[in-house]
DNA sequence: GACCAGGCACATC
DNA sequence: GATGTGCATGGT
């Protein structure tokens, strides 16, 4: 399995190149993006983040002071704007109370403990927590998402029942705990996942299937 | 006009 | 513990 994971990584990297994740100018921006992108296309999240920047409220203290109504209005393009406003507020509250909104202080905490803390915040589940740990705080944690599961299941590498942590353990057990690799690997899987729908793609990047057989794999 | 997107919490059985 | 449902916009 270790060899297989390495091989898939090489194939993805050779096919797509570096993905430069996570796009964002600050740790805080990445954290906000992680919450906003829940079940939402990144394109819509970008619009929401642009709004926050335009109104100069993309900072913990500013966003904390912004009313829910106003916050919801700004993040509207990202969808689920009421629920995400509440989730942002919960997260900001956590940031302020536990770390005085100091990212460095946060990054200094033991990864496992920090993960537990994040999961206790209402609105932050495993993927959002791990995205924050890996992409905002550079912690060696592998992020699993719907694409990862779908790709690995369809290539027969995991079974249908495998849950988030089963899949995460697979990567964490067999890969070197390297932030750069974890970062790139997940980004590449998302990239491949997005290619699913492109019927024009003649062949799979990570397996020998082509043409109709390839289309069937992703049907 | 249907279908989907880088989830999560909560209700119900 | 498993399964279903609400949340909402914008692109294809």
Features:
Endonuclease III, domain 1, 219 residues, 13 helices, mainly alpha, DNA-binding
What would you say this structure looks like, in words?
The protein has 219 residues and is mostly helical. It has 2 domains: 2-17 and 146-217, no CATH class; 27-136, Hypothetical protein, domain 2 (Endonuclease III, domain 1, Orthogonal Bundle), CATH 1.10.340.30. The chain is built from 13 helices and no strands. α2 packs across α3, α2 runs antiparallel to α9 (126-136) and α5 (68-75) packs across α6. The mean pLDDT is 93. It binds a DNA duplex (13 and 12 nucleotides) through α2, α3, α6, α9 and α10.
Characterize this entry briefly.
The chain is mainly α and about 220 residues long.
State the helix count: 13
| CATH architecture name of the largest domain | Orthogonal Bundle
Rg estimate, integer Å: 18 Å
- CATH homologous superfamily of the largest domain - what is it? Hypothetical protein, domain 2
Distance between the termini: 25 Å
Q: Provide the domain count.
A: 2
Strand content: under 5%
Q: Point out poorly predicted stretches.
A: none
Which CATH class of the largest domain? Mainly Alpha
- C-alpha geometry: globular
Q: What level of helicity do the residues show?
A: 55-70%
Oligomeric status of the shown chains? Answer: single chain
For the sheet with most strands, the description reads: none
Helix/strand order? HHHHHHHHHHHHH
Number of strands: 0
Round the mean pLDDT to the nearest integer and report it. 93
Q: Which structural class matches the secondary elements?
A: mainly alpha
């Amino acid at each position: 399995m270790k060899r297989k994971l390495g091989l898939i990584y090489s194939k993805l990297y050779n096919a797509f190149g570096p993905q430069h994740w996570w796009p964002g100018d600050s740790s805080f921006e990445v954290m906000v993006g992680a919450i906003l992108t829940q079940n939402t296309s990144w394109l819509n999240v970008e619009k929401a983040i642009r709004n926050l920047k335009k109104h100069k409220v993309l900072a913990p203290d500013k966003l904390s002071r912004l009313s829910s109504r106003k916050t919801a209005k700004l993040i509207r393009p990202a969808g689920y704007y009421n629920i995400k406003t509440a989730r942002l507020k919960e997260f900001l509250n956590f940031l302020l109370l536990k770390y005085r909104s100091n990212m460095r202080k946060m990054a200094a905490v033991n990864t496992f403990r920090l993960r537990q803390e994040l999961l206790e915040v209402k609105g932050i589940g495993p993927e959002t927590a791990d995205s924050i740990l890996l992409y905002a705080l550079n912690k060696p944690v592998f992020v699993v998402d719907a694409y990862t599961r779908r790709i690995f299941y369809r290539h027969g590498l995991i079974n249908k029942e495998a849950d988030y942590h089963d899949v995460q353990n697979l990567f964490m057990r067999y890969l070197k705990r390297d932030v750069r690799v974890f970062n790139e690997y997940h980004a590449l899987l998302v990239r491949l996942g997005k290619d699913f729908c492109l019927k024009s793609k003649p062949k799979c990047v990570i397996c020998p299937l082509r043409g109709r057989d390839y289309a069937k794999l992703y049907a």
